[in-house]
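Supplementary Methods, section 5.1.

A reviewer requested that the exact input to the structure prediction be made available. We therefore reproduce it here, unchanged from the version used in the analyses.
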Amino acid sequence: MTRRLRVLMTAMAFMALALSPAFCDAKGWEAVRADVSGLNSVARDNDVEIRVSPGHVVVVASQSVQIKVFTILGQVVSSETLPAGTSRLPLSHGVYIVKVGDLTCKIAV
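The structure derived from this sequence is encoded token-by-token as follows.
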């Protein structure tokens, strides 16, 4: 493969990644003040609970936590430290992996 072709293929791969729905729609984590008790609980441990609502993943934490959200292909959608309380991240329709401390789960949005 020629160098020019490799450069072109690499550029196309980066463009496809940048335009993928998982990256275009995510606007970042936001604090939630509404009641989230009616949402589907996916995973929970002593300090953290992960819930799903249409178009969002919701994290309820009793203390600040490091969270990472990946696409099913392993691409990082979000890597943040969330404060204590309830936070949500808007996501496109799809399957994601959420890792919070030692807690890891698969979610479908």
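DSSP finds two helices and nine strands in the chain. These observations are discussed further in the main text.
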